[in-house]
Amino acid sequence: LLDSKEAAMVKKSKKDMIIVKISRVISAPKWKILRLLTKVEEFHEYMPSVKEAVIIKKRKRRFWTRWHIQVDNVPIHWVEEDVFKFPRPEISFKAVEGDLQEFSGNWRLHDHPEGTLVEVTVKMVVGIPAIKHFAEQYIKGIIEKNFTGMLESIESRLISLRYAGLKKGDKQKVAGFGVLGHFYNYNHMMRSMKQLNKHFKPPSREFIHKLLEVTPSFKIYDMQTFKSKAGVTTNGRFILCTFIPDMVNFNTQAVYSKVVRACKVAEKYGVGIVTLGGFSSVAGERYGHQIAKEVDIPITTGNTYTAVLAVDGIAQAAKDLSVKLKDAKVAIIGGTGDIGSACARALAEKVRWVTITGRTKSNLRRLRGELRRRHKAVIEATTDNKKAVIDADIIIACASVSSSILDINWFKPGAIICDVAYPKNVSYMDTSRKDILVFSGGLSSAPAKIETGMDMGLPSQKVTYGCFSEVIILALERRYENFSSGRGAITLDKMNEIRRLGTKHGFGVAPFYWGDKLITKARLEHIKKDARIAKQKANKAKK
Ligand SMILES: NC(=O)c1ccc[n+]([C@@H]2O[C@H](COP(=O)([O-])OP(=O)(O)OC[C@H]3O[C@@H](n4cnc5c(N)ncnc54)[C@H](OP(=O)(O)O)[C@@H]3O)[C@@H](O)[C@H]2O)c1
After folding, report:
1. Which of 133, 235, 309, 499 has the fewest C-beta atoms under 10 angstroms from its C-beta?
2. Which 3 state secondary structure label does DSSP give 391?
């Protein structure tokens, strides 16, 4: 029983009590988190706010620990008594001395479908007269920051340990693939949002752009099982990088941070390997190999298989339109890029003439030199896209640009144009030419449906991007490695290897599509006929 003086003090302290509650779902079992929480003396190594945490006494399930934390340059010291309670599990703590008048709380761990829900509750009384009103709110903020930071650090620590195990060859702790995707323009973003809510009324562009800019990348969809033709299964996570390609040009650093964050989201789920889809690879690669230093998860750009699909796609198209590949003149727009240079290396073995284009003259000169030394085809390089395509039989368009750069009227009758780029190098809008074949290159057919949780701009669920296919193939093979990495490093050996693995699992060149329209065999026959007529007309006009 309390005497009246003590009871009054308890009542006053309850009135001044500040309560902070923080929680986080950590993708790890309870016992792993508990094991970290008991290693108090290691906290200062990976928790930035913890300057000192030492065990000063132990007795059965009771510990006495001394703490020194520092947030925003404010140091707080205390000694607490901790009690471990099983089987819940729970750790309760209560300061027995220190800077705060009262300081107690608990850590509780609960099962969660994605791992463990960790809840921290802190109760405290700051109790400093005169500056009480300011100090209470200020210290509340500091305690919130400290415990939020501790939870983040625990999660990062568990992730680092998991991927450190992978680097040593332990593939048991990770699984599946991750795909980083993004909206490919404003209209695509609006369409996707309307799909989620058909009553959605688009606000101003300015507003939605700003909102997208500040929204962190997040997981949008879980693919539970993907089964290949060879009967092997894997699973996947689709992560939305919250940018549109325009942003890469005026704020590359922000886009890059979104790509890093998206990789970290994949790490949180213990994904084995991720691909940087579309422009996320352009943003990632713009910083060279830096991204590999910032994240632990193996990354592949998907560009090797995309290049395979482009090269195999034009071989298929040439066959369909009776164009002899060995006599063909090929133009590769964006030929100095990662995909473009891989296509150039592969085609310089097979065709009569290759022209590469790009914006940077020194890159053009370097690649032209390499190709001329190694291959038998005539090799040309230019910054003039029109000059390159005007008399080309086959065009692979893979320039990273945010709007179309190739005019449909530049192509000669019967030309085959494989547009690998996103956004497209040839505008979808202009369909006036009936005598040429324009199709979306770098697309693959898949052995099973691929659901992504949002409109990925694909014509069918069994058709997917080369970069998605590459990461799925690697996950099926449990090849958790930086398969396609860097820029301009894709070799013919690697292309052959991923082509072989793709075939084994049931991937291959997709039927030809332009936008969401399938180009039928009958349409190919019409193109052949119209090209013949157009060529005859042109020849007559010349005479
Ligand atoms: N279909 C798929 O599944 C798939 C998969 C991955 C990527 N992609 C797409 O493929 C494209 C290329 O990707 P990447 O990784 O190879 O890109 P990359 O390495 O950045 O190369 C881009 C190339 O485009 C050139 N370029 C830029 N502007 C140009 C212009 N106005 N005229 C001519 N060339 C220009 C660049 O030349 P400079 O270096 O001189 O500027 C460079 O050669 C991107 O659009 C990407 O979204 C598609």
Report:
1. 133
2. coil
**171 conformational bin, left if phi > 0, alpha if psi -120 to 50, beta if neither:** alpha
pLDDT < 70: residue spans in the chain = 1-3, 5-13, 284-289
Length of the chain (residues)? 543
DSSP element (H, E) containing 327: none
Both structure tokens of 102: 């009262």
User: Do you find a cis peptide bond into 87, omega within 30 degrees of 0?
Assistant: yes
Which of 117, 110, 105 is CA-nearest to residue 143? 105
Cα separation, 164 vs 173, in Å, equals 10
Atom of ligand 1 nearest to the CA of 279: 47
Structure tokens at 133: 């009103």
* Distance between CA atoms of residues 230 and 505, nearest Å: 5
CB 363 near ligand 1, within 6 Å: yes
pLDDT at res. 369:
96
Of 427, 485, 76, 530, the closest CA to residue 300 belongs to 485
Write down the pLDDT at residue 93.
97
**Residue 59 is inside which H or E element, if any?**
strand 50-59
- pLDDT reported for residue 9: 63
Render pLDDT for 468-526 as a digit per residue (tens, 0 to 9): 999 999 999 999 999 998 888 999 999 999 999 999 999 999 999 998 899 999 999 99
pTM over 0.70: yes
Distance (angstroms) between ligand 1 centre and the Cα of 448 equals 29
> 321 with 328: CB under 8 angstroms?
no
Distance CA 75, CA 263 (A): 34
What residue type is 518 in one-letter code?
L
| Residue recorded with tokens 């209209």 | 187
Question: How far is residue 446 from each of residues 176, 498, 510, measured CA to CA in Å?
Answer: 16, 14, 8
